[in-house]
Amino acid sequence: MKQTAIEWFAEKDTELTIQFLEGKLNQIQLAIEKTKCLQQAKEMEKEQIIKFANKYEEYCYNIGKSNPYVQIKSAEKYYNETF
Fold first, then answer.
1. What DSSP character marks residue 83?
2. Of 50, 37, 52, which is closest to residue 7 (Cα–Cα)?
3. Structure pTM?
């Protein structure tokens, strides 16, 4: 299973909070770093959505081409198996 952008952000957020609590970052640095991580997570999410849509489209095409009577998985099920 791949890590989602939300999971990645949660890990980074925790790491930054620990750094703040340990005195390695002040409040301004913490806010700046969290903002950077949020922007990066948004970009990751966008990329993941695009890749997912392309892979699912390819999956549906291949399933339909090989056997038109096979029921295609729901997008939600495909997503859950991928991420």
1. -
2. 37
3. 0.70
